[in-house]
TrEMBL record:
GO CC annotations, alphabetized: plasma membrane
Keyword 4Fe-4S attributed: no
Annotated signal sequence range: 1-26
Taxonomic source organism: Salvelinus namaycush (Lake trout)
Keyword terms: Leucine-rich repeat, Membrane, Repeat, Signal, Transmembrane, Transmembrane helix
Domain of life from the UniProt record: Eukaryota
Protein name as annotated: Transforming growth factor beta activator LRRC32-like
Transmembrane segments: 646-667
């Protein structure tokens, strides 16, 4: 008879078998189903990098997308592409020079064709006739094909709904109205890196949908009459442009981004009065070579010459060609790597919405911003003409020769957040000299000494003073300036006075004092309760200051100092928050590495531990031994310091146990004896 347990067992077995069968069955079904679906979706095929010399035969007629790029196809004959559903075809990076006339007849739906990097400068007539049958083309890339003006024109025949066109890297020299005459609905045209020296009037004007025009890396020298009302982004970077002039006709322009970087501009571009310009890239030009006054008057007369206007229309006495900047909603201007020796305050202060101004790599020495000619304020005195930069938040002044930024100037930046003064010669003022009874004292003292007052700039959050040759940071230098990030790196031999960082205790999150040749005693930090990142690399510090246990550091860089060890309890405290620690370039003691264990325990990353060196007992520096210290030290050290090993511990435990057992047995015996004695 079968016992109940056996019955249950057999039942369970049966069930499992059944379940398995049904599952595998459904799996098989599932497979066939997905297989079919997969078949259905064979709409995309990639044949890239297959060394193909012709279009493969027998392609699925339902194909919608075909990638044949990076092969060695030279010829497409009229039978090879019978793919009526094809929407996208990529033939870039082949050796295509012959496209038979009917080759594209059976891909009439094609919307995107990429022919970049082929040899389409050959057989232009027949090739272009082949392309002529693609009436639905929206995107065409014929960059890098060695095309000249006439060839490009032929390839653009009959492209009435073309939207995006790429002609980069060809040999176009002169753009004429014929070029786009049959592709009038393009929205984006890229003709970078050609040899264009002239653009005839009427070339782009009829392209009413044109939004993006990229003519970077050509040979244009002037833009005498910019008239493209419709274009939003115009890229003229890396030409040889000396001036950019818009003849004012009151028409509104859509222009939002203008890139004139890497040209030969002497003047600011003369942009249309009514525009939407937000980003102006003028880096690497020669603006600022002329003094501001000369610049403005020369620009004025240039404009008159070109437009043959004798009088500037709205003849307010002190208005000039740049007065209409007041209407410009510019938020970003890059003037880095130009030739400014002084700040063109009057011109720039028209830009009331400017948020970011980059003036790095110029020759600015002094932004004194005292009485300015043309200003509307009083002479002398300390009442300033009301020139301000009300929206400016990011000011990059790195790599100039700046010694001074006057308090007036800093006060004209009511919303400044980030000030980059890296690589200048700025001396922070001693606030003690500034706390005079009245504003007047403060000002006169300030203008006498050439120092910059970083005191009481309530909006400033990030300040970079790296590499300024600063010798002393006085007490309270940053008081009432709630900095979040401060870079004091590469000010060799800087002395931080006691209380130099006073006022930053609860705001500062990132501090660098790297490369200052600082000794431990020169390093007097307060308790910085918000500090997350501290970089004290490249100094002469031999003890990590214990005050940093105040800070919830997540990143600490102590590379290249004179550390031999780290205080264990300090490391214990730090490793609660620490994510990353950099330690290489110190000569740690190979045998004093308890700090390392604490860090390992808390899984703190030490990316450069392999490169860290330690000093062994016999006085040699060893690389890579730090993590293997115990192994190493136990061989070298006298037994007194050596930690007992496992064998010794076991022997001791065994010994103690035997002694204890003997003792217990003995006591028991004695007690029992006593007990029986009583009984
Ligand atoms: C590509 O194909 C040609 C012949 O068609 C052959 O000579 C060549 O070795 C092939 N190259 C590679 C990388 O397979
Ligand atoms: C303009 O073109 C240059 C060169 O290709 C490119 O580096 C730059 O980013 C472009 N500018 C804009 C604003 O897109
Ligand atoms: C300013 O320009 C310099 C040099 O071109 C660049 O390195 C820096 O990142 C720019 N600064 C800003 C805030 O864009
Ligand atoms: C204004 O600044 C110039 C230097 O740019 C200086 O020579 C001149 O003395 C200053 N004027 C006043 C009133 O401080
Ligand atoms: C760094 O400081 C030491 C004294 O602490 C001095 O001897 C050395 O010259 C300094 N190095 C530099 C580069 O200033
Ligand atoms: C610390 O500063 C040095 C010198 O500026 C820099 O090379 C290093 O990357 C910085 N460390 C970290 C963690 O950013
Ligand atoms: C380690 O730091 C703790 C406080 O963080 C301090 O009490 C102790 O004296 C330090 N030990 C050494 C050896 O400096
Ligand atoms: C010092 O010890 C290391 C590691 O044990 C050894 O490789 C090295 O030869 C020793 N150097 C001297 C000078 O004894
Ligand atoms: C240190 O120990 C690890 C394993 O714990 C080993 O892979 C590595 O080779 C050792 N390094 C040296 C320099 O002995």
């Amino acid at each position: 008879m079968i016992r109940p347990t056996e019955t249950t067992f057999s039942l369970v077995l049966l069930l499992v078998l059944l379940l398995y069968c049904s599952l595998s069955h459904s799996l098989i079904q599932f497979n066939t189903v997905t297989g079919r679906i997969h078949d259905d979706q064979q709409e995309t095929t990639s044949w890239r990098f297959r060394n193909l010399s012709s279009v493969p035969e027998g392609l699925d007629v339902r194909l919608r997308e075909l990638d044949l790029s990076n092969n060695v196809i030279r010829h497409i004959n009229s039978q090879s592409l019978g793919l009526p559903s094809l929407l996208r075809l990529d033939l870039s990076y082949n050796q295509l020079e012959i496209i038979s006339e009917g080759a594209f007849r059976d891909v009439a739906q094609l919307q995107e064709l990429n022919l970049a990097r082929n040899a389409l400068s050959h057989n232009v007539d027949s090739n272009s006739r082949a392309l002529g049958s693609l009436h639905r083309l929206r995107r065409l890339d014929i960059s890098m094909n060695g095309l000249d003006d006439d060839a490009a024109e032929l390839y653009l025949r009959d492209k009435s709904i073309l939207e995006r066109l790429d002609l980069t890297g060809n040999g176009l020299t002169r753009l004429t109205p014929k070029l786009f005459a049959e592709s009038l609905s393009v929205t984006s045209v890229r003709i970078e890196n050609n040899l264009i020296t002239a653009i005839e009037e009427g070339t782009f004007e009829p392209l009413k949908e044109l939004k993006i025009l990229n003519l970077a890396r050509n040979n244009l020298v002037y833009i005498c009459d910019f008239k493209l009302y419709q274009v939003k982004l115009l890229n003229l970077s890396r030409n040889s442009i000396e001036f950019f002039v818009t003849r004012e006709d009151g028409h509104p322009y859509e222009l939002e981004i203008l890139d004139l970087s890497f040209n030969n501009l002497l003047y600011f571009p003369m942009v249309p009065k009514t525009n939407r310009l937000r980003y102006l890239h003028l880096q690497s030009n020669m603006v600022g070579t002329l003094e501001t006054d000369t610049l403005i008057s020369e620009a004025d007369s240039l404009y008159r010459e070109l437009t043959s206007e004798d009088e500037v229309n709205d003849a307010a006495a002190n208005s000039n060609i740049y007065s209409n900047w007041r209407l410009m909603p510019l938020v970003y201007m890059d003037l880095s790597s130009n030739h400014f020796r002084s700040l063109p305050v009057e011109t720039l202060s028209h830009l009331t919405s400017l948020v970011t101004l980059n003036l790095s790599k110029n020759c600015l020495q002094d932004i004194s911003y005292n009485t300015t000619k043309g200003g509307s304020g009083h002479d002398g005195g300390y009442h300033r003409p009301s020139l301000t930069f009300p929206s400016l938040r990011y000011l990059d002044l790195q790599n100039n020769g700046l010694r001074q930024l006057s308090t007036f100037f800093l006060e004209a930046l009511p919303n400044i957040e980030t000030l980059n003064l890296k690589e200048n010669s700025v001396r922070p003022c001693d606030p003690k000299d500034q706390l005079g009874p009245s504003e007047t004292t403060r000002v006169s003292l300030n203008s006498m000494s050439s120092c910059v007052s970083f005191w009481n700039i309530k909006t400033l959050r990030s300040l970079d003073l790296q590499d300024n040759g600063i010798k002393t940071l006085h007490q309270n230098t940053f008081e009432r300036t709630p900095l979040v990030s401060l870079n004091l790196a590469s000010n060799v031999d800087i002395i931080l006075d006691n209380g130099a960082l006073e006022g930053l205790q609860s705001s500062l999150q990132s501090l660098s004092i790297s490369g200052n040749n600082m000794t431990t005693s020169a390093l007097s930090l307060p308790c910085l309760k918000a500090l997350r990142r501290l970089n004290m690399s490249n100094n002469n510090v031999d003890v990590v200051p214990s005050i940093i246990s105040c800070s919830p550091l997540t990143e600490l860089d102590v590379r290249n100092n004179g550390l031999t060890s780290m205080n264990e309890s300090l490391v214990d405290r730090l490793s609660l928050d620490l994510d990353v620690l950099y330690v290489s370039g110190n000569s740690f003691n190979c045998c004093d590495t308890k700090w390392l264990k604490a860090l390992n325990r808390e899984k703190v990353k030490i990316p450069d531990l392999d490169r860290a060196v330690c000093l062994s007992v016999n006085g040699t520096l060893l690389t890579g031994l730090l993590p293997n210290h115990s192994l190493h030290c136990s061989l070298e050290l006298s037994p007194k310091i050596t930690e007992p090993n496992l064998g010794q511990i076991i022997i001791i435990i065994l010994f103690v146990s035997i002694v204890l057992i003997t003792l217990v047995v003995f006591v028991k015996k004695v007690c029992c004896n006593t007990g029986s004695f009583i009984v």
